[in-house]
Amino acid sequence: MDRWQYFLVLAACLITTAPLEFVGSGVYRRPRRLALALTPALAFVVWDLIAIAAGVWDFSARYLVGVRLPGAIPLEELLFFIVIPLCGLLTFSAVERLLAIRPRGRAGKEVKK
After folding, report:
1. What are the TM regions of this chain, as residue ranges (predicted)?
2. In this structure, how many other beta carbons lie within 10 angstroms of the beta carbon of residue 107?
3. Which of 23, 90, 95, 97 has its CA 20 to 30 A from that of 63?
4. Rounded Cα gap, residues 32 and 34, in angstroms
């Protein structure tokens, strides 16, 4: 079971935020926005690859399924840099949409209930 922990955490993040696609502005239906959100994560992938090559850090095989990509980066680590920004964007989009539909009074102030 330990081998699947990283995958399970990523899956839990995706499952938890998946319904937000229907609350927010449709992250999956806006591929340009999604691509822009994921692009900065590439810097961290490069950082990871450099650190792995330099021996600065490694990943415990106990918590990985064993698939290593070029540069010895574990599959789960690469997925992390896709899943977490995606979940963040889904959350942001839903909160942004929900705040935009709240009733407002004069001068843009919230209506107190």
Report:
1. 6-28, 35-57, 77-99
2. 5
3. 90
4. 5
Write out the DSSP string of the chain.
-GGGHHHHHHHHHHHHHTTHHHHTT-STT-HHHHHHHHTTHHHHHHHHHHHHHTTS----GGGS-S-EETTTEEHHHHHHHHHHHHHHHHHHHHHHHHHHTS-B-GGGPBPP-
Say how many C-beta atoms besides its own lie within 10 A of residue 68's C-beta.
Answer: 15
Whether this model's pTM surpasses 0.85: no
Which amino acid makes up residue 58?
D
User: What is the reported pLDDT for 103?
Assistant: 67
Q: Give pLDDT tens digits for 87-110.
A: 999 998 889 888 887 666 555 566
Tokens at residue 18, please?
């998946």
**Rounded Cα distance, 41 and 24, in Å:** 22
